[in-house]
Amino acid sequence: MGKIALALIALSASADGLGANDGSSSRDACEADCTGSGDERRCVFEARLDIHASSTGYYKFAQCGSTPQPVLAMEQGVEYTFRQKSASNWFHPLGFAYAPDGAHRGHDELEPGISKSSDKSCEEGNSCQAPMYFLQGDFLGAVDEDGSAYKVVYPERNNSGNFGLDVYEPHFLAGRGDWLAAAEEGDSDLGYEVKLTLTDQAYTNDLFYFCHIHNSMSGRIKQMTTGEASVLQEKDEPELGYSYEILSRFDDRCGTARLGSYAGNEAVCGAGKFTCGDGPTPEAEAFNECLHALDCAMHEEMRVKVHPSDPITLFLQQMIPHHENAVNMAKATLKLELLTANNDPEGEIEELLWSIINNQNMQIYKMTAWLANNGRASVAEANCGYDGDCVADTSIALLVVIGVCLAVTVAAGAGLVRMRARGGK
Q1: What are the tens digits of pLDDT across the range 26-66?
Q2: How far is CA 245 from CA 56, 68, 214, 257, 374, in A?
Q3: Are 304 and 383 in contact (CB under 8 A)?
Q4: What phi-psi label fits residue 389: left (phi over 0), alpha (psi between -120 and 50 degrees) or beta?
Q5: Dihedrals φ, ψ of 37, to 5°?
Q6: Which residues belong to the signal peptide in this entry (predicted)?
Q7: pLDDT tens column, 246-268
C-alpha cells in the first residue's frame, strides 16, 4: 500500500474520533488493557507518578504512554482495576469523584452512600457506585476496625458503607519503606489496587480520578457505553477549573517546577551565586546551575509584607516558598542522578529525598489552604520583591520574629492540623 493511501487512512481514523488514544484530550481518551467479554470483561490501568511533571507530580498510566494526567475512558458495567504497584505511587492514593479534586474542594466522591442520579435508592443500602480498595488481593473494606469481619460487605446492599479507603489511605502516609514492605508481604505480587465498576447508568457526566493527599491532581474520566464503547457525553463537564502546569526547558532539565523565570535572571537574583566555587565535574556544575535558580526563587518569594496583627500568617507565607525550595532541591538531586553506590550505599539519602518531596508538598497544600480559608493573602499576593518596603515598623517586625519562633515550636511539637475533612469520617 502506498504512503498516500496510508496517510488517508490515518486521517480518516482521526476524523472518526479514533485518535491516538493517549489521553491527551477527550477525543483521544486513553483505553485500558481489557480481556474477556460480557460479564467476564475485565480492564486494567497501571498507575505511576512522574514526580518531575509538576510541583506535586502528575499521574501517568502505562496504557497512555507519556501523557501526564491523561483523559481515561471507562465503560459502564465493566470492572476496572487501577494498579498502584509502582514505588512512585507512594503518598498518592487514587480516589474518584463527581467533580475535580473531590473532598479537597468540597465535592462529592464516589462512595457507597452517595448517588448523583435521580434514583437515590442505592444510598439507603450503601450500594452506590464506589471504588473498592485492595492490598495483596484482600479487600480492605471487609473487616471492621476491631478486626471482626462484616457479615455484609460492599457492594451488597445494607453493608456498613466501608469500601476500604480508611485503611488504604493511611498505608500511603506511612514511611516509604513500610509502604513498600506492606505491598510485598505474602505470596501475592498484586500490591496496592483499586477496583471500580461504574454501575449508575443514569449518570452520564464525566467523572474524575484524583489524589487523596495532594490537591490539583485531577484527571478526567469519560464514561462509555458497554461493548460498543461510544462516549456518553461529548462535552467536558464538569469543568476541571484549572490548567495543568507546563514545565520550562530549564525545569525539564533540572527536574524542578516553576523556576524558568529565575534561571539566569540577574535582574532578580543578581550576578552573584548562592554557592561558592565551580563544580569539580560537569554533573556538579549542572546541579549548581539548578541550585542558583531555586535558591533565587526562595530568596525572592520569601520577601513578603508583614501582617499587622498575625505573625502566624507571615510564618506560613515564608514557610511555603521555603518548603518549595526543599522540594525542588530534592527533585533536582533525583533528576540529575547524583546518588551513587558510593555516596548512598544503603539508599538512605534516596529515602530522604522522596520523603522531602511528598511530605513537604502535602504541608504546602495544608499551609496554602489555611491562608485561603482564613482570608489571608497568598504568597504571591503578599510578595513585595527586592525593592519593596516589606517591613515599615520595626516593632511589628520584632513581633513577627517572636511569633514565628513560637509557631515553629508549636508546629514541631504538634504538627499542622489536617485541613480537609472527608464526608463520613
Answers
A1: 999 999 999 998 889 999 999 999 999 999 999 999 999 99
A2: 10, 10, 15, 8, 26
A3: yes
A4: beta
A5: -145, 165
A6: 1-20
A7: 999 999 999 999 999 998 887 78
Pair 220, 240: CB distance under 8 Å: yes
pLDDT at res. 69: 98
How much is the pLDDT for 351?
95
With helix as H, strand as E and coil as C, how does the chain read? CCHHHHHHHHHHHHHCCCCCCCCCCCCCCECCEEECCHHHCEEEEEEEEECCCCCCCEEEEHHHCCCCCCCEEEECCCEEEEECCCHHHCCCCEEEECCCCHHHHCCCECCCCCCCCCCCHHHHCCCCCCCEEEECCEECCCECCCCCECCCCCCCCCCCCCCCHHHHHHHHHCCHHHHHHHHHCCCCCCCEEEEEECCCCCCCCCEEEEECCCCCCCEEEEEECCCCCCECCCCCCCCCCCCCCCCCHHHHHHCCCCCHHHCCCHHHHCCCCCCCCCCCCHHHHHHHHHHHHHHHHHHHHCCECCCCCCHHHHHHHHHHHHHHHHHHHHHHHHHCCCCCCCCCCCCHHHHHHHHHHHHHHHHHHHHHHHHHHCCCCCHHHHECCCCCCCCCCHHHHHHHHHHHHHHHHHHHHHCCCCCCCCCCC
Cβ pair 134, 192 in contact under 8 A: yes
Q: Which residues of 379-418 are buried (b: 16+ CB within 10 A; e: fewer)?
A: beebbeeeeeebbeeeebeebbeebbeebeeebeeeeeee
The confidence score (pLDDT) of residue 390 equals 56
Q: What is the rounded distance in angstroms from the CA atom of residue 47 to the CA atom of residue 25?
A: 18
Q: Give the pLDDT mean for 321-347.
A: 96
Question: Between helices 176-184 and 165-173, what is the axis angle to 10°?
Answer: 130
**Mean pLDDT taken over the chain:** 86
Measure the CA–CA gap between 228 and 155, rounded to whole angstroms.
Answer: 26
- Which range has the worst mean pLDDT, 112-116, 149-153, 229-233, 405-409? 405-409
Grid coordinates belonging to 398: 520584632
d(CA 302, CA 326): 13
**Cα(132)–Cα(336) distance, rounded to whole angstroms?**
38
Amino acid identity, residue 274? Answer: F
Give yes or no for a contact between 294 and 335, defined as CB atoms under 8 angstroms apart: no
Residue closest to 268 by CA, chosen among 302, 245, 315, 314: 302
